[in-house]
Design a protein that fits this description.
35% of the residues lie in helices and 16% in strands. The chain is an alpha/beta fold. It has one domain. The protein has a three-stranded mixed beta sheet with strand order 1-2-3. Strands 6-8-7 form a three-stranded mixed beta sheet. Helix 2 packs antiparallel against helix 4 and helix 4 packs across helix 7. The longest helix has 14 residues. The protein is globular, with a radius of gyration of 18 Å. It starts with 9 loop residues before the first helix and ends with a helix.
């Protein structure tokens, strides 16, 4: 039920898709970090929110064609072997929906970088993640399918000097082989075989 001229709530639509349509879509990335107080600048009401769904997800027309109270963008990617990992319940008034926990949200930001998300902003966000749980980080990194994302996550976490980083067992995480060029004409970070812009590599 909505009053005349009231905007339909995106959170309600997401809750419905998750609980009634069994569609695996959730709010994630920077938007999830904002909702959980993990960003320097709260902008959720002024920017589009980022939604994530597995690569072949088909969304119903009622969701696509309706206008919601927030602008949104859906990124379809299969980042994890088990796509239900790293989700947490979030309550928006009377509505409950699943969103990415901070660890998964960070992985999603890095998955979009550098084309859809700034690497510098991703590092700033990582700097704020001082209270991540090592067990949760370990599980998600072992489950992550992207070599690029895993290397960036570990490098940024180590560079930020987080206390939880020392508890991560990298021997259990598949980091692939060979260099990954994230920024053309950048500088090599030997430990993680990443080629990044000079300001992030030194």
């Amino acid at each position: 039920m909505v009053k005349s001229n009231d905007m339909l709530m995106l959170s309600g639509a997401l809750s419905t898709l998750q609980s009634q349509a069994n569609i695996n879509i959730h709010l994630g990335g920077r938007s999830a970090l904002e909702l959980q107080g993990n960003t320097h600048y709260l902008q959720l009401n002024s920017l589009e929110v980022t939604l994530f769904a597995p690569g072949r997800t088909e969304l119903p027309l009622w969701f696509i064609k309706n206008e919601w109270d927030l602008e949104y963008r859906v990124f379809k990617l299969s980042l994890l072997e088990n796509d239900t990992l790293g989700l947490t319940a979030y309550r928006d008034g009377d509505i409950e929906m699943n969103i990415s926990n901070p660890t998964r949200a960070m992985l999603e930001c890095l998955a979009l970088a550098p084309k859809e998300f700034s690497l510098n902003e991703a590092f700033e966000l990582m700097e704020g993640l001082t209270t991540l749980r090592p067990k949760q980080v370990q599980e998600l990194l072992e489950n992550c399918k992207s070599i690029k994302v895993k290397r960036l996550f570990l490098y940024f976490a180590e560079r930020a000097g987080h206390s939880w980083f020392k508890y991560i067992d990298q021997t259990k995480i598949d980091l692939g082989s060979g260099n990954r060029t994230i920024t053309p004409n950048g500088v090599l970070v030997p430990k993680y075989s990443l080629v990044l812009a000079k300001d992030l590599a030194e």
